């Protein structure tokens, strides 16, 4: 049985080091991308503070399609270049939005969301999808979150079988 311990962290680095360690344990000997993305979204949802949604959108047929997630029901399909997720996917750049209400073209799936971070998932120059995390707080995410979540995405891309 996998158990997340109640530990308080003095730094984001310490927090994300544990997230990476938990993720490695969850994915141990498992290559299925859906199973792994489901567990990683559950891990993040249960261990990260001040978030209200976390999940993956997978790139299929020139759009993003909802994948494994935790939180309220979400938008199912997102066109490339639209909203924060579509912008992250089309630009292939991390999007950190301190206030989604000031973001032109934001797609409001949950009225409680105030900030958002989206990390593109890219392997061998191929877009696979994005990791999307929402928060009810303004300014919840910063460059440290970007840095460490990128490391988590690298772990996921290297570990999963994306050809299935």
TrEMBL record:
Pfam families: GAF. SUPFAM superfamilies: GAF domain-like (SSF55781). It comes from the Bacteria. One of its GO terms (molecular function) is L-methionine-(R)-S-oxide reductase activity. Residues 55-147 form the GAF domain. One of its GO terms (cellular component) is cytosol. Belongs to the free Met sulfoxide reductase family. PANTHER family: FREE METHIONINE-R-SULFOXIDE REDUCTASE, GAF/PUTATIVE CYTOSKELETAL PROTEIN. This is GAF domain-containing protein. It comes from Vallitalea longa.
């Amino acid at each position: 049985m996998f158990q997340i311990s109640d530990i308080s962290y003095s730094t984001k680095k310490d927090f994300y080091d544990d997230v990476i360690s938990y993720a490695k344990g969850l994915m141990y000997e498992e290559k299925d991308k859906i199973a792994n993305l489901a567990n990683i979204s559950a891990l993040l949802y249960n261990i990260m503070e001040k978030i209200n949604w976390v999940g993956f959108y997978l790139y299929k047929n020139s759009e993003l399609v909802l994948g494994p997630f935790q939180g309220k029901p979400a938008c199912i399909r997102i066109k490339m270049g639209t909203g924060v997720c579509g912008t992250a996917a089309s630009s292939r750049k991390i999007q950190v939005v301190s206030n989604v209400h000031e973001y032109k073209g934001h797609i409001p799936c949950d009225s409680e969301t105030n900030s958002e971070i989206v990390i593109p998932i890219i392997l061998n120059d191929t877009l696979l999808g994005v990791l999307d995390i929402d928060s009810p707080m303004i300014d919840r995410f910063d460059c440290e979150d970007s840095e460490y979540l990128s490391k988590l995405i690298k772990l996921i891309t290297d570990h999963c079988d994306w050809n299935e």
